[in-house]
Amino acid sequence: MEIKKTLFFCVLFLFSVNIFCQAPLQNEQIRIQVWAELDSFPGKFEEESSVQKQKSSKQEEKSDFEKLYGFAIERTKQIAPFLMEGLLYGWNFDYTPYDKKRGVKEYWEFSEVRKFDSSINRLEYHNPVPKDGKLLSWVYCDRTQAQQLEYKRWTSIIHPKVKGCGSASVQDGFEGIKQACSNAAKNAVREYWRTMEKNKPKEISGTLLLIRDPRIFIKNGRYEVDLDFFLETDRIVPYTYY
Questions:
Q1: Residue 95's closest CA among 225, 234, 223?
Q2: d(CA 174, CA 67)
Q3: Coil, strand or helix: which one is 204?
Q4: 199, 203, 213: which is closest to 233 by C-alpha?
Q5: Mean pLDDT of the region 54-82
Q6: Interatomic CA distance for residues 36 and 205, integer angstroms
Q7: Are 97 and 190 contacting, i.e. CB atoms less than 8 angstroms apart?
Q8: How many CB atoms lie within 10 A of CB 214?
Q9: I need a labelling partner for 1 at 20 to 30 A (CA). Which of 20, 79, 113, 168 fits?
């Protein structure tokens, strides 16, 4: 009986090790699923430029898949680097909450910490599948040694995990997705500090590191995004300073 138990746990251990070795770690390699619409939206077509004509002349050099899903492929190649910026480096923010009593309007500035550089991080697109009017692809990106150390810094220091949802019009295309992500980031910061600060501050600035898979979908003609972050607050300016 003891021999059977020992054999069982040995097999279980080896199976667990095998699964662990096969699963890519997010601190070494990022894997996210990205989707893009198969066709551009009505009202967004423009007169073909000379550059587009040159591209059209090269269509014969492309594969049948690229010809059929060209728009979705180009959109995916816009979305993936933008999301990787947030996952690798994070996004900076500067936020002034709305204050009716003081007559202060809401202000939100959202920018990348560092532009995505394909010469540093090569993106690989795997298993593209057309489904329900979208092209779904898995995007892989290896972190450099320096980026792995930076990610370890984020996870080793106590940074609160925050979550936010945002939306923007699908008519704005890729800019709409960026705006929806910006709105999600703003809502994440606002909701977190609303529970942490009794008195509304004048200004909050810091950095948000995108974590986990970004969830992006369309609802009622709008992009809806649901994002998770680590929050690093650099500065909080109370009204008592003025």
A1: 234
A2: 20
A3: strand
A4: 203
A5: 78
A6: 32
A7: yes
A8: 21
A9: 20
